[in-house]
Amino acid sequence: MEQALTLDPINEAAAAAVIRLLTGLGRRDEARLRAQHLNAHLASLDLEPTPETQAVLRQLRTCRRS
């Protein structure tokens, strides 16, 4: 998935999967960094994350508070 994101940094499905995996492994800082990169790439194209990606990002923010 990391290779896919290197080739296509706005591949939301791959980014969301990586964020979920990193969160599940307890690597929340890396997951947050990946989320920031995805949001920056999408914003540079004036795009919003899909509802599915937004759900993953909300889950990551919820983990931050825990």
From TrEMBL:
<protein>
    <submittedName>
        <fullName>Transcriptional activator domain-containing protein</fullName>
    </submittedName>
</protein>
<dbReference type="InterPro" id="IPR011990">
    <property type="entry name" value="TPR-like_helical_dom_sf"/>
</dbReference>
